[in-house]
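Customer escalation, tier 2.

The customer says the design service returned an amino acid string that "doesn't look like it belongs to this structure." They asked us to rerun it and document both sides in this ticket. The original structure tokens are below, unchanged.
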């Protein structure tokens, strides 16, 4: 029996495989990617590695005798099949995955200042990772919904580069973190920025609407007053005109009467009785 059957290790770390053997055995061989790298002889307790990067020891696992095989300073060239072949038994194969976590994580642009309620777009870049990392975001320590960000990865030589873009609505000051994770890491690598909220500019819409309403009402009142005053002025002017015409007609009649009396008076002046 071989454990684990699938193992993921970071580049330059050590990885172990344990084989438990039932019954008698004499020779066990270990192979990595089809190349025999270590031989163990039970009768002499001899361990014969082909390179110093490979070692083994006798052990006890779950109350049974076992062999622990170690690959030191694993590289991506070691990724693949690891085979334990015990003489007289069927070979057992495990799969080794090697991840390189030497890449970088960075949120572009640094800290952000935005008005309350505004939308913020942040971009996180990971470079030189193998394989492509899993990228996620947090805001004030809380996971950001995956529907709010999009991540794409592209190969760059023997590694991967990733770009992740997130859109957030700024409701309060926040620490936003971009996390890059590989299964072999004990903790994700991260980069963070701060979002600072500034007071939202006052909304003048309501005030403008009120001012316009009052202004319109005032203008309407002034217009009505103007019409009333104009009408009153025209009425008074018409009345004065009619009074003036009556006065002129009266004056004309009086003038006619006065002239007639004068004529009669002149006629009587030359009259002599018989």
């Amino acid at each position: 029996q071989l454990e684990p059957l699938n193992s993921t290790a970071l580049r330059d770390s050590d990885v172990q495989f344990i084989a438990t053997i039932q019954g008698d055995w004499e020779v066990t061989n270990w192979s990595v990617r089809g190349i025999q790298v270590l031989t163990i002889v039970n009768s002499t307790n001899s361990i014969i590695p082909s390179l110093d990067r490979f070692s083994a020891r006798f052990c006890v696992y779950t109350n049974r005798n076992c062999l622990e095989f170690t690959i030191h300073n694993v590289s991506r060239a070691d990724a693949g099949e690891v085979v334990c072949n015990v003489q007289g038994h069927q070979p057992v194969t495990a799969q080794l995955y090697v991840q390189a976590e030497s890449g970088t994580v960075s949120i572009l642009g640094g800290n952000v200042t935005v008005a309350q309620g505004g939308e913020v777009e942040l971009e996180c870049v990971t470079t030189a990772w193998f394989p492509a990392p899993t990228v996620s975001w947090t805001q004030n320590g809380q996971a950001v919904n995956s529907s709010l960000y999009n991540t794409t990865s592209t190969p760059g030589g023997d590694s991967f580069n990733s770009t992740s873009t997130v859109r957030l609505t700024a409701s309060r000051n926040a620490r936003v973190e971009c996390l890059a994770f590989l299964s072999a890491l004990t903790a994700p690598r991260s980069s963070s920025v701060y979002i600072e909220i500034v007071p939202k500019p006052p909304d003048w819409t309501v005030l403008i609407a009120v001012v316009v309403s009052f202004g319109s009402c005032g203008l309407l009142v002034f217009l009505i007053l103007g019409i009333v005053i104009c009408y009153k002025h025209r009425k008074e002017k018409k009345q004065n005109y009619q009074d003036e015409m009556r006065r002129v007609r009266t004056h004309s009649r009086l003038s006619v009467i006065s002239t007639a009396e004068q004529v009669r008076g002149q006629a009587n002046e030359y009259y002599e009785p018989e």
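Tier 2 assessment: The sequence is consistent with the input. The first strand starts at residue 2 and ends at 3. The chain has a mean pLDDT of 85. Sent an explanation to the customer and offered a walkthrough call.
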